[in-house]
Write a structure and sequence with these properties.
Elements: E1 5-8, E2 14-19, E3 25-32, H1 46-53, H2 64-70, E4 74-79, E5 84-91, H3 95-108, H4 113-133, H5 139-147, H6 162-166, H7 170-180, E6 186-192, H8 196-207, E7 230-236, E8 242-248, H9 257-268, H10 274-282, E9 286-293, E10 301-308, H11 314-330, H12 335-352, H13 356-369, H14 378-383, H15 387-397, E11 403-410
Parallel strand pairs: 2-6, 7-11
Antiparallel strand pairs: 1-2, 3-5, 3-6, 4-5, 8-10, 8-11, 9-10
Amino acid sequence: MVSFERRILSNGLRVLVHEDPYTPLAAVNVAYFVGSRDEQPNRTGFAHLFEHLMFSGSRNAPNFDNLLQSAGGENNAYTTNDYTTFYEILPAQNIETALFLESDRMLDLRITRRALETQRRVVIEEFKETCLSEPYGDMLHHLSDMLYRVHPYRWPVIGLSPDHIAKATLEEVRTFYEQWYVPNNAVLSICGPLKADEAFALAEKWFGGIPPGPEPKHVIPEEPLQIALVERTVEANVPVPAVFMAFRTPPRLHPDFYPTDLLSDVLAMGQSARLYRALVKEQPLLASVDASVTANFDPGMLLIEAKLNEGVTPQQAIEAIWNVLNELVDKPISERELAKIRHRFESTVIYSETSVLNKAQYLGFYEILERAELLNQEVDTYRTVDAEHMQRVARALFRPENAAVLIYQPRLAA
């Protein structure tokens, strides 16, 4: 249970405070309700670009990292399809340094031509390294394109092409900042050994004077239902053949998301999970296998990743994976297996909530998703998932007409 208090400043900034008297550290988290789904199809990668630009200097803090490090702090950020998070952790007595830095770049980030060119080069190089040069690095580009036709999830967070960032103008970048990085589109989470009233007073001091921006509007087209299996084979510089299977999942707040999430654990959490046990240990078809859910705000994907052993064809691997999935469709999961998955989930949640930084991030995420109270309710929601519910969801998920299958084959030397 993560206790917290909430106040909304006059400029629309939502402030959440969790008092933790048992740590000498404070965590500050600012979550902006903007992700890659809010970009234009010809200018993708902007939210990720701002993950970098936000550290390029602001009105009163030309060097973000130096000031934070001098206060004994660390920071980082990450971007998703749906939201962007910036965070700091530092000694609690220096918390105002983090609040000053976050408020200054919310008020007046210095988006100069020089700053843009510097971060543009960094982002384009990252795209080349992670998507074009790394084996299987463009996997999400293919699967997103295969699974979505109109929804902006059809491009990954890093963007469709480095050309979109290369051609971005200073005016376009400034407009994106002014539209989304405003107090009325953000959540500030403060966790540490501060009293709530003290934390709220500091939030008002550093953020209360920032004017609100335009009312954020997320114009997201609804993705039509998929009606047939989508398949694609790619020849690339990869060490071994691989199969990636993606299934369209319910949105994060849908009741069927919870059994979907648990199904991914049944398939691939640990060496006793079904895919690993059946296809790595018992039938040595796969060198490795994993499964995960994207947990998107809108319908996302359950992703299965399989690297093949020598001599195994992609068709053999795909058929074997379908056999494992069909077992979940045809037969309810046992109470013992379900209890094991539930217990692993609960222990993971409990352990993660011992971190003051994790608590700050969770509060920001759940408040952006809908409301932070969900943080303390979802464990109980997972506990109520039964075998019948999981089987019903498995039947809806694991159908060819709800799937995309991507095959990587090593490119033959010329």
